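Sat 14:20. Reprocessing the chain from the morning session after the first attempt stalled halfway. Input below, unchanged.
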Amino acid sequence: MKKWFKILATTCAVIPFAQCAVLPGSNIASAAEPAPVAAAAATTDADPALWVVEDDDTTIYLFGTVHVLKPGLSWFDEAVKTAFDKLDEMMLEIVMPEDQAAVAKTMMPLAMDTTGKTLPSRLTPEQLQAYQAAMVSVGLPANAFDSFEPWFPAMTLSVLPLTKLGYDPEQGAEKLLTKFAKADGKPVSGLETLEEQLGFFDQLPDTQQVAFLNSVVKDLDKLGPTLDKMVGLWAKGDPDGLAVVMNDSLAATPELAAMLLYERNERWADQIKTRMDKPGTVFIAVGAGHLAGEKSVQDYLKDRGLTATRIDY
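Finished this time. Tokens:
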């Protein structure tokens, strides 16, 4: 699962994590209930990486995020808050609808299988047994997603256990940044739509979706340690280290890396270049994986004659 989870954790804001498994009117909603609120955690300083692209009348900050975090990380301060306080507008990967029914309305037509295949029919007996055991282990009925495409249960299993591991979707960087921007009356827009982002997974060939699901099931117990390591690198402001962690696995799945990372990075660089023609200050927050390693957003900006300068703090 590591190669898939590294992409999910630092690139896609895809869904409010624990809620993604809740189907309106279903009998599995309790499985997505948040974990009990723990005692206030001691605050730990975090200094995530921040870049700036600027000309005479336009400033664009690039901030790498992790979409779900544990309480107690102090990252919205110092240079990050200074940059945020200057913004005229904020851009995220997507702007999540606040209405979960709207999320489901977009998601369900993509997630449901329309070919007549069932999920069990795509798996070998051994794979099916392991998958059903994984579903039960996170509190879901073994057959809850039998009529869905494989990417949907794979994604759900990748994120649903996080609350039990101490991670809180409400502490995710985008969630908090959106809250702060709205409190300041600042506009928030998306580089992509929810439908586009979910479509990246829906468009994966069936064989890759099944491989995604089997990989998640196989390494479900590594979910916590994997994310802990990535968050540690993020908090230290170490995009090079993060790139090494990601690149170890991305090399084995070039088609997936191209679809979920590189092609999107290139499109976003085009959007940033276009935005540079308009005066103002923009704070762009995207998954940290998009701002790390080769073929990052910064690399594509350089190809377009723009320099992203790392802000030291």
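Confidence is low (pLDDT under 50) at residues 13-35.
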